[in-house]
């Protein structure tokens, strides 16, 4: 998921601030993505009866599928945003926002 | 996330950042879970104390969420590994 690259060259042995900031941003993005996935799949798959502490078979299967779908949605939305951004840039239109 | 092109100082810094984030994440998970389980399980305010039914519900809620989170984490890691192998992010 590393779509953030680049950064200026570092002084020898020093800490490259740009690289660090990019890495931290990526870390935050991935963490946020994971947390949203947990919350979404919980509300969709886990019944609120809480009859027992373990996941039953239905819930387990639901979770597996939920994760796969969530991932797919993320890819498709990302592709769509990028292509739309590229189309905007090509047509020279203002508005919208630049692709990541 | 690929940290192979980071030198020692940068890796040490990233490790500290990751640790701090993990702790913050855990605390957020904790407060989220408290709210979620309270909202689902505690609906009877005729008494101040938790009934045994409510207590069982809370215990199950917590355990279930933790197991759920672990499972999502495992699947997520698998998906990530698959993505790395396929496209090369």
Low-pLDDT stretches of chain A are: 6-12
Strand % of chain B is: under 5%
Strand content of chain A: under 5%
The major sheet of chain B is characterized as:
none
Instruction: Provide the structure class of chain A.
Output: mainly alpha
Q: Class of chain B in CATH?
A: Mainly Alpha
The number of distinct helices of chain A, counting runs of at least 4 residues, comes to: 2
Instruction: Tell me, briefly, the overall form of chain A.
Output: flat
Give a short account of the largest sheet of chain A.
Answer: none
Q: Using a beta-carbon cutoff below 8 angstroms, give the protein chain pair with the largest interface and the number of residues from each chain.
A: A-B, 41 and 37 residues
* Quaternary status: heterodimer
* CATH architectural group of chain B: Orthogonal Bundle
Structural description of this entry:
- The complex is a heterodimer of chains A (100) and B (89).
- Chain A is mainly α and 100 residues long.
- Chain A has a single domain (2-91), classed as Mitochondrial import inner membrane translocase subunit tim13 like domains (Helix Hairpins, Orthogonal Bundle), CATH 1.10.287.810.
- Chain A is 64% helix and 0% strand.
- Chain A has helices at residues 17-45, 57-91.
- The longest helix of chain A is centred in the last third of the chain and has 35 residues, at 57-91.
- The model of chain A is unreliable at 6-12 (pLDDT under 50).
- Chain B has one domain (8-85): Orthogonal Bundle (Helix Hairpins), CATH 1.10.287.
- In chain B, α1 runs antiparallel to α2 (52-86).
- Chain B is mostly helical.
- In chain B, 12% of the residues are buried.
- Chain B starts with 7 loop residues before the first helix and ends with a helix.
- The chains are: A mainly alpha (100), B mainly alpha (89).
- Chain A binds chain B through residues 1-3, 10, 13-16, 19-20, 23-24, 26-28, 30-31, 34-35, 37-39, 41-42, 45-46, 48, 50-55, 59-60, 63-64, 66-68, 71, and chain B through 1-3, 6-7, 9-10, 13-14, 17-18, 21, 25, 28-29, 32, 40-41, 57, 59-61, 63-65, 67-69, 71-73, 75-76, 79-80, 83, 89.
